[in-house]
Amino acid sequence: MIEFESLNRLSVYLDRLIKGQLWFKVILGLVVGAGLGIFLNPSSGFISERISGQIADWLELPGQIFMRLVQMIMIPLIFTSIITGIVSNTSENLKSIGPRLLVYFFFTTGVAIIIGLAVTLILEPGKYFVSLGGFLGTGEGPKIPEQRNDVLQDIPNAISNLIPNNPLEAFLTGEMLGVVIFTILIGVAITQLKPVTARPLIRFSEAVQKICMIVVSWAMRLVPYAVFGLMAALLSRTGLEIFMGLGYYIGVVILGLFILLVFYLILVFIITQRSPLKFLKQIKEPQLLAFSMASSAAVMPLSMKTADEKLGVSSNISDFVIPVGATINMDGTALFQCVTTLFMAQVYGVELSMINLLLITFTVVAASIGTPAVPGGGVIVLASVLQSAGIPVDGLIVIIGIDRILGMFRTSVNVTGDLTACVIFDKFYGESREEVLIKTPPEV
């Protein structure tokens, strides 16, 4: 086996963010930004609409720079992380873990969607929003390509399209599912090479990882200012009445995410016999960082370090489960997409039959797997979900405005889901510390 530097060691670039109370600065930015946004809103009567719009454009600048920096390095970070995770596993271990991990991710995603359906159908946030006089129609809305509504007929094409015929195109367009599958194939192929041939590729992957984490650490310095500016710009452009109406919708999403979090804790207790409260205490650092950054992929190094050092997970499990989970295990995002789809249907009065709900479920599962693990990734693919259900997409402009708030909560849940998968699979497939010591020859 070729030696390489595990990604969890690169968490040193994020340690100072934890020590600097980044999460507290983000909360402070939200509160202060909300106050400034209300002051800048033309309806308050303090500033004209033209000046308010110009100030909002400048306030958004740190947030736009942050999101572009993160999006710029996410694909190379995920590519190299998955490769090193595969190389760290034996071929036999990879064959046993891979299919079961995929089934587990489908299972938890299905549970997340069921929770989303339940809380939305029971609490009906869309009807409450309409009762307050709110309306999401804002003109043209986001432009999305025409899609066939017959999802069942698209299944064979969707399966065949999982393997990209042009990997470079998948990298350039940000098709994360194609990138993940291509990377897994390359990683498995590397394990078949002789060590002398594979070593330069592993060293190159290490270097790319380090470069990406340095860029991430730079971007994270902008997070409090980005949140402050985005929140101020949002409330300066959105009527306070509409925002208060959306507050109930936000509460429904957060309630669904909390129920999903409880489901994870139940799995941890039943399968691994761990204390749920102790488990939450052990993973609080990656949760807080995920809340601050709203990008599960950027938190991967700290998640790996937490899994190895605090949860006692074997590195051969965490090095594979977390990079793959950060790209395809988007349970919190799936729940958000489900709640938002039903919310929009309720707002526009679109009646959904049981068949429609089943089709939405299938579409959300497929969409969540391919969701980019970057800020705003959930909304990027939400338009296709709405389109397949025949729901107008005009209201996405308002949803995009408040997505930053929801993104922080669902990213924390996504990271919790990845760490939950780590402890569960370590229970059945992980190597104990004693086994690792036995396999490792003593230094001479």
Can you count the helices? 21
Structural class call reads: mainly alpha
CATH topology label = Proton glutamate symport protein
Alpha-carbon distance between the termini?
Answer: 19 Å
Low-confidence stretches: 137-152, 433-444
What does this structure look like?
By secondary structure, the chain is an all-alpha fold. The protein has a single domain (7-439), classed as Orthogonal Bundle (Proton glutamate symport protein). It has helices spanning 12-19, 22-40, 49-59, 61-87, 91-123, 125-131, 151-160, 167-173, 176-191, 195-220, 223-237, 240-272, 276-282, 284-293, 300-309, 315-328, 331-348, 354-369, 377-388, 396-429, 433-439.
Can you lay out the helices and strands and say which pair or pack?
Blueprint: H1 12-19, H2 22-40, H3 49-59, H4 61-87, H5 91-123, H6 125-131, H7 151-160, H8 167-173, H9 176-191, H10 195-220, H11 223-237, H12 240-272, H13 276-282, H14 284-293, H15 300-309, H16 315-328, H17 331-348, H18 354-369, H19 377-388, H20 396-429, H21 433-439
Helix pairs in contact: 2-11, 2-14, 3-11, 4-9, 4-10, 4-11, 4-16, 5-12, 5-17, 5-18, 5-20, 6-12, 6-17, 12-13, 12-17, 12-20, 14-20, 15-16, 16-20, 17-18, 17-19, 17-20, 18-19
Question: Could you give a quick summary of the protein structure above?
Answer:
With 444 residues, this protein is an all-alpha fold. Helices cover 77% and strands 0% of the residues.
